[in-house]
Fold this sequence. Notes:
Blueprint: E1 2-7, E2 15-18, E3 20-25, E4 28-31, E5 48-49, E6 59-64, H1 67-80, H2 82-108
Amino acid sequence: MKLTFKGWRREVTGHDHPVEPVDFANGHYKAKMKDQPLTWSGPLTALGRVSRLRLSGDFLVEFTFEERELGNWFEQYLKAKPEEALRMIASLHAEAIIGLSKQSKSESV
């Protein structure tokens, strides 16, 4: 995951900060290898470390996820809330079919 901070009223310099994945074991947080995706610890919670963050003021924050991280999130969500996850899958499945249908029509024109 990457966080990008942009000044709320004005942007002088963009601030890009990778979120490093961490594990929580035996009451301590431990950094994982940097090339690993962020791991979700629950259906709505992920832990990560951002280093050298020096910001003051108001910022717009953009969250950029890797596909592996979203897959990991959905696995945790599915385990914790299977009924809600199934509803989400059904809704997203329908949206994907509509999107594919529109995409194939525009490609054939």
